[in-house]
Write a structure and sequence with these properties.
The protein is α/β, with parallel strands linked by helices. It contains 24 helices and five strands. It has a five-stranded parallel β-sheet, with helices on both faces.
């Protein structure tokens, strides 16, 4: 009997191990195919080609390195260029410093281009750390996949930092602040699971104030809470969990009646509005959604958020002027505070109500004269872009200059230490380095960050992007506003960076290639 039990247990263990092995092989093979196709990695260097390694985070992970490779090869018949994309989403400068030796060994580049630092002082709960993960996390894609599922299921934030000989800079928080942010995030997750939208919004508003990192992440979550519609599976879960009824057994009138009773019981009229309008959206009931929003804007308790939903709804049908009027109505109905001003500014910018966006950001700055520099830099960059898009070039230039002065006056010890280490490692191998600044930012702050060292070439992305924004709207160049002054690049934006790098290479001393 015991032998049979042991045999079955061994068989189960072997079966699980075999399954995990198959999953690992599939994930590793898929990763290799993706890397070869999209990033040029995993291919042995050819001695006849000139290799360029591009190092950065999500703005580099995009398309500009592949555009650069195409431009260089098209412009140099008979010469082969390979551009290797080492961009990683969410990576910080200390992570790059830990991985750079391996990348150089594998890529054997003739030139390295860096664009680093934007994640060093961002919101610490956005991305899991990418460095110092242990052997299994570093090499097993199954382990990383399971860890990702675990974090998603339980909403776990970034793991604790590992110590090394570097400084603890803007991107690091002391234990007390980190614990408070984790506590609030846990409350936010619990409120979301209970469909308490109003409670979740208040927690998110508190996170905006307490998180010393950039506010963009939290403002984006606020926007999604207010404007996004619930998926059908989530609606079914609401009826099952909160009301105890199978939604498929109810007609539309019965669903509405149950939600109304739930709103009376919980007092969360904003959550009820979101679920009701979601049901109408998936039923393609435009008239029904319109009636719900028209009733909601007359409810003093939720009028401000309801006007924002109405503005977003109107924009779907290209009712631009009506959408702008809805935003003005929301401005009048929302509380006059820092967090709502940031949200109104972002939504107004997305809906091209640039004058209102300018006014909202100016109000936010006036309401919080004690802002941490990470917040102020974001707002000044957004303010410059909103002014520029509204056709007010002079204030845009003034706000960019103000942002430049603020940036130059800061000492970013953390980024400086690890960026210098990255460059030192590359230059020790006598590989040329181009340190590239992010779009629309001044290259002077990058020069200062690297102590004006002369063994590095510096490249700015300001004049090219300012010229593009004078011709095209912001969404044609950037997909979002995640960094305040700029965002993740659109296809046109990626092309701008690639063309700028190619032009810089054409101007440089060609002795090294």
């Amino acid at each position: 009997m015991i032998q049979k039990v042991v045999f079955r247990l061994v068989a189960i263990v072997i079966g699980i191990a075999a399954t995990l092995l198959v999953v690992e092989v599939v994930l590793q093979t898929t990763s290799l195919v993706v890397k070869i196709k999209d990033h040029g990695e995993g291919v042995a260097p050819s001695e006849g080609e000139f290799r360029i390694t591009c190092i950065g985070e999500s703005t580099t992970y995009g398309l500009w390195p592949s555009h650069l490779q195409a431009i260089l090869n098209e412009g140099s018949p008979g010469r082969a260029f390979r551009v290797i994309n080492r961009g990683e989403v969410g990576i910080r400068t200390d992570d790059v410093a830990r991985q750079i030796e391996g990348w150089l060994d594998e890529d054997r580049p003739h030139l390295v281009i860096t664009m680093l630092g934007i994640n060093d002082e961002g919101n610490v709960l956005v991305y899991p750390r990418s460095g110092s993960r242990g052997w299994l996390m570093e090499h097993s894609r199954t382990t990383r996949f399971l860890a990702l599922l675990w974090r998603s299921a339980f909403d776990i934030g970034a793991p604790a930092e590992t110590d090394d000989d570097g400084p603890r800079g803007d991107g690091h928080l002391d234990d007390e602040i980190r614990a408070e942010l984790a506590r609030l995030k846990g409350l936010r997750t619990a409120a979301m699971q209970r469909f308490r939208i109003s409670e979740t919004i208040e927690i998110e508003r508190e996170l905006i104030v307490k998180d010393p990192g950039t506010p963009v992440y939290h403002v984006s979550l606020l926007r999604e809470l207010l404007l996004n519609h619930e998926q059908q599976e989530r609606i079914d879960e609401f009826f099952s969990q909160e009301i105890g009824i199978d939604s498929s057994q109810l007609d539309e009138a019965e669903k509405s009646a149950e939600i109304e009773r739930w709103m009376e019981r919980t007092g969360d009229r904003l959550a009820g509005l979101k679920i009701l309008t979601s049901i109408a959206r998936w039923a393609n009931d435009t008239e029904g959604e319109t009636r719900l929003l028209e009733a909601a804007v007359d409810d003093p308790e939720i009028a401000g958020p309801a006007w924002l939903r109405m503005a977003d709804f109107a924009s779907l049908f290209d009712r631009t002027e009506f959408a702008k009027q809805c935003l003005l109505n929301a401005d009048g109905a929302l509380p006059d505070d820092y967090q709502w001003s940031l949200l109104l500014a972002e939504i107004s910018f997305r809906l091209e109500a640039y004058d209102l966006s300018v006014g909202s950001i100016q109000r936010a700055l006036a309401l919080r004269p004690d802002l941490p520099s990470s917040h102020e830099l974001v707002l000044l960059g957004q303010l410059a872009n909103a002014c520029e898009q509204s056709g007010d070039g002079a204030p845009a230039a003034a706000y960019r200059a103000q942002r430049d002065d603020l940036e130059l006056g800061r000492f970013r010890e953390f980024t400086r230490f690890y960026y210098q280490r990255v460059v030192d490692i590359i230059r020790a191998r006598e590989i040329p380095v181009i340190a590239m600044q992010y779009p629309l930012l001044s290259v002077e702050s990058l020069r200062k960050l690297l102590d004006y060292r002369e063994d590095v070439s510096y490249l700015e992305n300001r004049a090219n992007f300012e010229a593009a924004l004078a011709e095209y709207s912001y969404p044609k160049i950037f997909d979002d506003t995640f960094a305040g002054s700029f965002g993740h690049l659109s296809p046109r934006g990626n092309r701008l960076v690639a063309e700028n790098v190619a032009a810089a290479l054409a101007r440089m001393d060609h002795s090294f290639y």
